[in-house]
Design a protein that fits this description.
alpha+beta; MetI-like fold; 49% helix; single chain; 9% strand; 3 domains; elongated; 459 residues; 4-stranded mixed β-sheet; 9 strands
């Protein structure tokens, strides 16, 4: 007969005695401790570079410029009372509305078009190259490109070249009549003879202010006989000469045509009677001109203002009216490649069967783009747009470098205003800290939205 034995149950641990921890639980605890050790330096760095500055700025924004007197929300109220800060808020709004929309749209168009070209990779590389350029270098490049002087600014060189191709430039923008020699200036820059001129008479019109190296290459010595009398037998004619009343090397007589003095060719001359232009002529290479077939009476010889108009200098890209669009243009140059590459990556992941099915059903390329490509790319376009919004809100380098000092306020955004108020001469770090807190409050919602979009795409 078998005997069954049972072991006695193990006694329960006394109250307060430590329990044995299983090996699995000990391993998990050891992993957590190792993770904390590795993460702790990053957390300390994050706290020192992000959390502490945010908390310090928040506290500093509640004190005055000296940091000694508590003002509460006074600095935040000052933001909406200061005209320069309101202008910076307006400019930041323009940036947020214009730049991300243009960049997202431009990136989408370029991403679609690059799929149609053979050298798509090289094309994308060229467009992405500006991303390798720092904002400092990009600002210097565009500051030079936007120069008003067409001899230095490439954009104005192009604008002036196109303008001059369709409009004649004035030949003598610096010329002016010699004083007390029978010429008087009219409103608008024209010149006229002070004495009446009758058919059969001649006039001598002397000018100064034209440098010898600015004289036309075909200019010849002025004809003194043209200023003495009209052509023989021309009693119905008025003749004369327009010349540079300056003798190289000195000498000569003011108001008289000397042998070494040259005429001013291609100068427009008018003869006026009773306020109306009776005839128009252009001076020859020696500066001479003649009006024939004039009726008897008194006339005035006039040189229109178009002869002396200042040359077209192009567009004032960095003036108060255009400085913000000009800086946005530089920003587009830098970030277009970024937008195109991200959207291109999303475009490459689209299901091709949907596109091919639409083509087989007879849809045009534009219909496919509008009704299939864009809706399928909506998540990617949203991420790109929100990322650009966050970046645009913090833009500083391009605005500070490109905008000249006199129009710095006209181009200023929140980031530049914050720096100028705090360190750029304002010395009011209380107001500057309030601006930084405002900028943070504007950026955080966009960042939260972007993070949620990323988490949603992972799920």
């Amino acid at each position: 007969m078998a005997v069954t034995t049972t072991s006695a149950p193990s006694p329960a641990p006394a109250a307060g005695a430590p329990r044995d921890v299983s090996p699995r639980r000990r391993a998990q605890r050891r992993k957590r401790n190792i993770a904390v050790v590795f993460v702790l330096p990053a957390l300390l760095l994050l706290g020192a570079l992000v959390v502490y500055p945010v908390l310090f700025s928040l506290g500093r924004s509640l004190f005055d410029a000296s940091g000694d007197r508590f003002v509460g929300g006074g600095n935040y109220a000052e933001i909406f009372r200061d005209p320069a800060t309101l202008k910076a808020i307006r400019n930041s709004t323009i940036w947020v509305v214009v730049a991300p929309v243009l960049l997202t749209g431009l990136g989408l168009v370029l991403a679609v078009l690059t799929e149609k070209v053979r050298w798509a990779t090289a094309f994308k590389l060229v467009l992405f190259l500006p991303m390798a350029v720092s904002f400092l270098a990009a600002g210097i490049i565009f500051r030079l490109a936007y120069e008003q002087d067409p001899n230095r600014g490439v954009l104005n060189a192009v604008v002036v070249g196109v303008h001059d191709a369709f409009n004649d430039r004035s030949a003598y923008p610096t010329a002016r009549a010699r004083e007390n020699q029978g010429l008087a200036g009219d409103a608008g820059g024209a010149y006229r003879t002070t004495d009446a001129v009758r058919p059969g008479q001649s006039v001598s019109l002397g000018f100064v202010g034209v440098a010898p190296d600015q004289m036309p290459a075909d200019a010849r010595p002025a004809r003194s006989e043209a200023a003495a009398a009209p052509a023989a037998g021309a009693a119905d004619a008025v003749s004369g000469v327009v010349y540079l009343d300056f003798t190289p090397g000195g000498g000569g007589t003011a108001g008289q045509v000397d042998p070494a003095e040259k005429g001013l060719p291609r100068m427009t001359v008018e003869v006026v009677r009773d306020g109306r232009v009776a005839a128009t002529a252009a001076t020859a290479a020696d500066g001479s001109f003649t009006f024939r077939g004039l009726e008897a009476g008194s006339y005035t010889v006039r040189l229109p203002a178009e002869n002396f108009a200042a040359p077209y200098e192009g567009v004032s890209w960095l003036g108060p009216a255009l400085v913000t669009p000009a800086v946005i243009g530089a920003y587009l140059w830098v970030w277009t490649g970024f937008s195109m590459v991200l959207i291109g990556a999303g475009l490459a992941a689209l299901p091709r069967d949907a596109l091919e099915a639409a083509r087989m059903d007879g849809a045009t390329e534009f219909q496919i783009f509008r009704k299939i490509t864009v809706p399928l790319l909506a998540p990617v376009l949203t991420v790109v747009f929100v990322t650009l919004v966050i970046n645009v809100m913090k833009v500083f380098d391009l605005v500070y470098i490109i905008a000249p000092g006199p129009v710095q306020e006209e181009a200023g955004v929140l980031a530049t205003r914050m720096w100028l108020v705090s360190f750029g001469g304002g010395n009011n770090q209380g107001l500057g800290s309030a601006l930084s807190v405002l900028l943070l409050l504007l950026v955080v919602p966009a960042m939260i939205f972007n993070v949620r979009r990323f988490r949603g795409s992972e799920k």
